[in-house]
Write a structure and sequence with these properties.
510 residues, alpha/beta, Rossmann fold, Dihydrodipicolinate Reductase, domain 2, 2 domains, nine-stranded mixed sheet, 35% helix, globular, binds 6-O-phosphono-beta-D-glucopyranose
Length: 510
C-alpha cells in the first residue's frame, strides 16, 4: 500500500514520511538570542514531543558568552517551559537535553570553528559514520557573511557522505545591492542547494493553505484573474509596538521588516501560476516569475503608490501606549516608518490592471493577517430597489491569523416577503474542521531544513526580485528628508493618508 493511501486511512502515518530524515547535528549560532529562545528551542522540543526528529539528533548551541553545557541546557529548559505551545513532558525534554551541548566563541574567531570541528568529528566517531549537519544562523545579519565564510575556510561547508546545510534568518540585506553582496558571500562557500533562507510566513499552515485552496480546487481558478477580480487587499496588522527591538527596527522600518518578505510572499503565492509540481525549484520558479512581473514604482510614482507613517501615543485593547518616538532606543527625530501601505500591479496576462493594496503596521487596533480578494460587481442587477441596495461584490477572505480560515461572502435573500438581499458568509475554520492545533511555522521549517526540502525557503534570485520591488520606495523615502511623517494613534486602523491609495474603495475593518 502506498504512503498516500495509508495517510488517508490513518492520519498518524503522516509522521512516517519523516523517518527517512538522517541523523543530524543542528548547530545554532546565536543560541542564547531572542529568536532561538522564543522560537527555535521550543520548536525543537515540540518536534521531539511528536517523535518527528531523526532517530539521532544532536544540538549544539553557539554564542559569544561564556557558559557551559549545563547552563545552556538550563536555558533551553526555561525557554521551552516559557514559550512552547504545549506544556513540556519532563521525560521528553530530559531525553532531548541529553544531546544538547554548548560551544562559546566569537563568530569571527577561527578558533571557534576548530573547536566546533572537534565536537562534530567526535559526534561522527561516536555515531560510527558521518552525520548530517545543519548550521542555523540565528544572529544579527552582519554575521551571516562572517559565519558562512569562516565555515567555508574551516572546511565545514562540506562533509564526506553527509549533507551540510545552512539556514539563514531574515533580513537578507537591507536593499537590493546589499542582498546581492550577501547572497554572493554565502554562495562563495555553499551551493544554492545547501542554503535555506527562512521566511517564517511560508512555514505557517494558513499560508501553505493559499496554495492548497488555489491548486486543489477547481472552484477558484475560473475567477482568479483580471476578468473577475476587482482588487485585492493584503493586511498584516499587529497590535504590538517595537518593544525592545528598536536597535534593529530603527534601521529597518515596516517596509523592510514585513513587506519585503512576508507580505510579498503572500502576494506571490496568491498570484503565481500553478507550479507543475510542489517541488522546491518548480514552485520558486513560478514565484520569481510573478515577482518579476510586479513593476517597481518609478521614483516619481512613489508618492501616489506608497504611504508611510509612525504610531503616536494611543490606547490598544484598553491599555495606554507610548508613541514610537517615546519608545526606548528610538532616535528623537526618527523617520523610521512603523506603518506602510502600497498599491502594486502585477503586469502579466492574468493580473494586468488589478490593484493589489498592501498594508502593515505596528500598534494597530488588533493583530490580523488576511488576504481579501474582491470580485467585480455583477454586470446587471434585476431586483427591485430594496433588493439591489444590499448587494455587495463577492469576497474571498483568507485569514492567516488569528481565527485561521477561509470565508466567501455571498449575496443571500433575507427571509421574508420582500426580495431584500444582504451578504452572508460561507466559512471554513481550521479549528473546527481539523480539531487539532497547527504546528508553529518554525517546527515545519526546521524539519524541512533537516530533510533538505527547500520548497518553503527563499531562493537567491527570489530574494533579489523581492528587493527590486521595494528598492525605489526606499530610495524615494530616503531622499525625502523633510516632509513630515504622518502619524496614527496607537490602537487605530492606521493613518488617513493610506485611504488615498485606494481609488475610492475602503480598507477592510481591523
Ligand atoms: C517578523 C518581524 O519577521 O515578523 C516582526 O521582524 C513581526 O517585527 C513578526 O512582529 C510577525 O510575525 P507573526 O508570525 O507574529 O505574524
Amino acid at each position: 500500500m502506498d504512503l498516500e493511501r495509508l495517510a488517508l486511512e490513518n492520519p498518524l502515518i503522516d509522521g512516517l514520511e519523516r523517518l527517512p530524515v538522517r541523523s543530524t547535528v543542528l548547530v545554532i549560532f546565536g543560541a542564547m538570542g531572542d529568536l532561538a529562545s522564543r522560537k527555535l528551542l521550543p520548536a525543537i522540543y515540540n518536534l521531539a514531543h511528536e517523535g518527528s526528529l531523526p532517530e539521532r539528533i544532536e544540538l549544539i548551541g553557539i554564542s559569544r558568552g561564556e557558559s557551559s553545557d549545563e547552563r545552556f541546557r538550563q536555558h533551553m529548559r526555561e525557554s521551552v517551559d516559557r514559550f512552547s505551545r504545549r506544556r513540556p513532558n519532563v521525560d521528553v525534554l530530559d531525553g532531548l537535553l541529553e544531546n544538547v551541548r554548548y560551544v562559546s566563541g566569537s563568530f569571527d574567531d577561527p578558533d571557534l570553528y576548530s573547536r566546533l570541528r572537534e565536537v562534530l568529528e567526535a559526534i561522527d566517531a561516536d555515531f560510527g559514520g558521518p552525520v548530517n549537519r545543519v548550521f542555523y544562523l540565528s544572529t544579527a545579519p552582519e554575521f551571516f557573511p562572517v559565519i558562512t565564510t569562516a565555515l567555508g575556510e574551516a572546511g565545514l561547508n562540506v562533509a564526506e557522505d553527509a549533507d551540510v546545510r545552512v539556514v539563514i534568518e531574515k533580513p537578507i540585506g537591507y536593499d537590493l545591492a546589499s542582498a546581492r553582496i550577501q547572497n554572493e558571500a554565502a554562495l562563495r562557500h555553499f551551493d544554492e542547494s545547501q542554503i535555506f533562507r527562512i521566511d517564517h510566513y511560508l512555514g505557517k499552515e494558513t499560508v501553505q493553505n493559499v496554495m492548497a485552496l488555489r491548486f486543489a480546487n477547481a472552484l477558484f481558478e475560473p475567477f482568479w484573474n483580471r476578468n473577475f477580480v476587482d482588487h485585492v487587499q493584503i493586511t498584516a496588522a499587529e497590535d504590538i509596538g517595537v518593544g525592545t527591538r528598536a536597535g534593529y527596527y530603527e534601521g529597518s522600518g515596516a517596509l523592510r521588516d514585513l513587506v519585503q518578505n512576508h507580505m510579498l510572499q503572500l502576494l506571490a503565492l496568491l498570484t503565481m501560476e500553478p507550479p507543475t509540481a510542489f517541488e522546491a525549484n518548480r514552485l520558486r520558479d513560478e514565484k520569481v516569475k510573478v515577482l518579476e512581473a510586479i513593476v517597481p514604482p518609478r521614483l516619481d510614482e512613489v508618492a501616489s503608490m506608497a504611504v508611510r507613517a509612525q504610531y503616536a501615543p494611543g490606547v490598544v485593547s484598553g491599555v495606554e501606549c507610548a508613541g514610537y518616538l517615546e519608545e526606548p532606543g528610538v532616535a528623537e527625530r526618527s523617520r523610521t516608518e512603523t506603518y506602510a501601505a502600497l498599491k502594486l500591479y502585477v503586469s502579466n496576462w492574468r493580473w494586468a490592471g488589478v490593484p493589489f493594496y498592501l498594508r502593515t503596521g505596528k500598534r494597530l487596533a488588533r493583530k490580523l493577517t488576511e488576504i481579501a480578494v474582491t470580485l467585480r460587481p455583477v454586470p446587471h442587477l434585476a431586483f427591485n430597489t430594496t433588493g439591489n441596495s444590499g448587494v455587495q461584490p463577492n469576497q474571498v477572505v483568507l485569514t492567516v491569523q488569528p481565527d485561521e480560515g477561509v470565508s466567501v461572502s455571498l449575496g443571500a435573500k433575507i427571509p421574508g416577503t420582500k426580495m431584500a438581499i444582504r451578504p452572508v458568509n460561507m466559512e471554513f475554520h481550521y479549528g473546527t474542521s481539523f480539531m487539532s492545533e497547527s504546528p508553529e511555522a518554525y517546527e515545519r521549517l526546521i524539519m524541512d531544513a533537516m530533510r533538505g526540502d527547500a520548497t518553503l525557503f527563499t531562493r537567491n534570485d527570489e530574494v533579489e526580485a523581492l528587493w527590486a520591488i521595494i528598492d525605489p520606495i526606499l530610495a524615494a523615502w530616503r531622499a525625502d528628508e523633510s516632509s513630515p511623517i504622518p502619524q496614527y494613534a496607537a490602537g487605530s486602523a492606521g493613518p488617513n493618508a493610506a485611504d488615498e491609495l485606494l481609488d475610492g474603495c475602503a480598507w477592510r475593518r481591523l
